[in-house]
Amino acid sequence: MTSFLQQSFNGLVSGSFYALLALGLAVIFGMLRVVNFAHGAIYTLGAFGAVLAAESLGLGFWWALLLVPVVLAAAGTVVERLLIRRLMALDPLYNFLLTFGIALVCQDVLRMKYGSHSQPYEHGPFPGSLDLGLFDFPRYQVFALAVSVAVCTTVWVVLTRTRVGMIVRAATERPELTRAFGIDTGRWVTPVFGFGVALAALAGVLAAPMRAVNSTMGSDLIITVFAVVVIGGLGSVFGSVLAGFLIGMLQSLAALYVPVLSQTSVFLLMAVVLLVRPAGLFGKEEHA
Asked: Which residue ranges make up each domain of the chain?
């Protein structure tokens, strides 16, 4: 029982990163109808941003947690304005290829600068373990889980309880219908894209003290995150977050009980979900 609970908690921690990344992907896809393949590269840049802030600027973890997402969000809005927006009228494949190319460029630049070896980051707060009753768990991982839950909850409250949030959510989940009611969804495209980038960068900074910081850390993760978004439902904010935590737990429990399926379990679940509900668990099917 203790092993089950400890592995489940491990899964929630892993799922917290999936949830943050999937939340960013969901709002970007919902608003722009762009599959942002560079999302994993932004996650990587967030982690390297924390390393760079410590090594070159002498900034600690808390400053990195605050500044790195803001800087990368600003860079993301520039990319959206100069590149992504110009391809919006074309087939979505063009923006997919663009963001895929951006991801490759970022990965290769980081590899040229830092090599393929992992970079150490030892500036995370809350060292040691926390007694959770039946088992001890690293304090920092509890903190990372709490931050993810707090951010996802705050975003959900903003999207459901404020007028601006309702407009953004409507434009994310039903963009055509929102425009039909006379709401200018175009004005929200750039800030929503920047917000999605900030979430990926935040996940990267949170991952730096507990994950291997290297140029491929994002590419190793992004395929699973795409599967999470598909399972939750493309464009569904709530579905993406919930699926992120569920997939994290599924992978951890599979690693404990059926190790051979630990990596493929998410894709098996995706296949089953798509057979039963092609739009995902919380997605809405579009009717012609």
From this structure: 17-218
